[in-house]
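Need the bound structure for zinc ion, inputs here:
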Amino acid sequence: MSTKHFNRPAAGDVVDGESGLPDRDKFLGRATKEAVHELGHTFGLEHCTDSKCVMHFSNGLADTDYKQAVFCGQCKPKLIQ
Ligand SMILES: [Zn+2]
Ligand SMILES: [Zn+2]
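Answer from helper R.:
Posting the output first, comments after.
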């Protein structure tokens, strides 16, 4: 009996290989984005409508993979204040 199926990605996860990145890099990228996102909240930022902005709310891993680990032109000035 295999327990492998317990480790299957959740529904909505991107298919492996789609980004061309190894899983470890993908995981690190997600972890970095979530950490920066939470840091943004700590500094008083709210969710951003720019889907590429790190403060964009992720509905799933696909959103997290799409956005970047940086603040957009609207969020960055608020952070520096
Ligand atoms: Zn948030
Ligand atoms: Zn933003």
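Comments: Residues 21-80 form one domain. Helices lie at 23-42, 61-66, 75-80.
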